[in-house]
Amino acid sequence: MKKLRKRLWLLMLPVCLAAPLAGAQDGRPAPLPEEEMRVEKASAPDGNRLYVSDFAFHHMVDGRLHIVDGKAGRYLGMVNTSFGGLTTVAPDGKAIYVATTYYTRLYRGQRADVVEIHDPQTFALLAEIDIPAHRAQSATYRSLLAPSADGRFLYVQNATPATSVTVVDLQQRKFVSEIQTPGCWSIQTWAQGHRFSAICGDGRLLTVTLDDNGQPVSRERSEAFFDPDKDPIYIHPEVVGDERYFVSYNGNLYKVRLAGDKPTFTPPVSLLTARDRKEAWVPGGMQVMALHRNSNTLFVNMHDKGEEGSHKFPSKEIWAFDLGTLKRTARIPSNTASSIVASQGAEPFLYSLNVERGEIDVRAIGKKGYPKLRTIPRVGDTAVFMEVN
């Protein structure tokens, strides 16, 4: 029986082999059209494009910048930012800047610091500029990477740990100078000329003026405008023209005017009532303030039971203030956000980022309050900062 089965199988084998060939010749489908690989361009920013900086704490050599359509809640793309990359967007929205670090052995080896310029529609790399290997490897606070008011220069915060600022000429796409700023930190650009100020450890401002070649021509220190021991301030302000608004760890608002020959200061005003202070409400988080300019509304991340060291705690509520009177106008429930930002377009929104879950709550800014519209889920691994354009 076994021999018979073997003979039958051998007799059928040519038929089995030939059948597919005959079928392929008789009913072969038409070839598929050739595919063309291309990169789809993102639509132009509409005032609600979010740039979400992901520090990637669990794999920090692989940071990312996520680009999200905040209005639609749709993911648009990503720019790699490597190790602790600092990011910002050009004032006209026509370029994405990244100051970052690469190592020859991924996390060790020879260090190379660069400024990268990316296309905001394809997110492709347009240019790479070598800079001194001194730049601050830090979470991307707004004041650590900043273009000049006219877009000619890009200022990069350095820390070795000695502090200095690298100046990059964006027109010629080259490094032009490094300016020492001992004891002073952050980059507060002026609205006129090539000038920036830095906040010093004694409560003063150091102001540096550059010439048209990016070289320093003057350095001046102001009087002290806050007490860093009793009322330290967050370094990333909200900006209205020449005015910069800083909030302190204790809930005081400082106004600084960067115009004319030197900075001028307005005495601080408390954002808290007596009851607020009794309940120990204080600002907290990473990106603690947001300003909607058309309605002149300042939003502040707030938590109660504040104490020494709670200045980075996420918010329990987001408070809205009329910037003219500094009267509180709303107490908005928070998604325990650490960072907030407000858009400025025809359809403005308040975005609040929960770092732990990577969720962004989207609220409308309008005459009927701040209703929650949607939640954008899981943006990145450990997203910490947002910029809107």
Note down, in words, how this protein is organized:
The chain is mainly beta and 389 residues long. Helix content is 8%, strand content 44%. It has 2 helices and 29 strands. The protein has helices at residues 2-27, 274-278; strands spanning 49-54, 63-69, 74-82, 86-89, 96-103, 111-118, 125-131, 145-147, 153-159, 163-169, 174-180, 184-189, 195-200, 205-210, 216-221, 238-240, 243-247, 252-257, 264-270, 282-283, 289-292, 297-303, 317-322, 328-333, 339-342, 349-354, 359-364, 372-376, 383-388. Strands 20, 21, 22, 23 and 24 form a 5-stranded antiparallel sheet that branches. A 4-stranded antiparallel sheet has the order 3-2-1-29, with no helix packed on it. Strands 4-5-6-7 form a 4-stranded antiparallel sheet, with no helix packed on it. Strand 9 and strand 10 (163-169) form a beta hairpin. The N and C termini lie far apart (81 Å). Mean pLDDT is 92; it is low at 8-24.
Task: Show the helix and strand layout.
Blueprint: H1 2-27, E1 49-54, E2 63-69, E3 74-82, E4 86-89, E5 96-103, E6 111-118, E7 125-131, E8 145-147, E9 153-159, E10 163-169, E11 174-180, E12 184-189, E13 195-200, E14 205-210, E15 216-221, E16 238-240, E17 243-247, E18 252-257, E19 264-270, H2 274-278, E20 282-283, E21 289-292, E22 297-303, E23 317-322, E24 328-333, E25 339-342, E26 349-354, E27 359-364, E28 372-376, E29 383-388
Antiparallel strand pairs: 1-2, 1-29, 2-3, 4-5, 5-6, 6-7, 8-9, 9-10, 10-11, 12-13, 13-14, 14-15, 16-17, 17-18, 18-19, 20-22, 21-22, 22-23, 23-24, 25-26, 26-27, 27-28
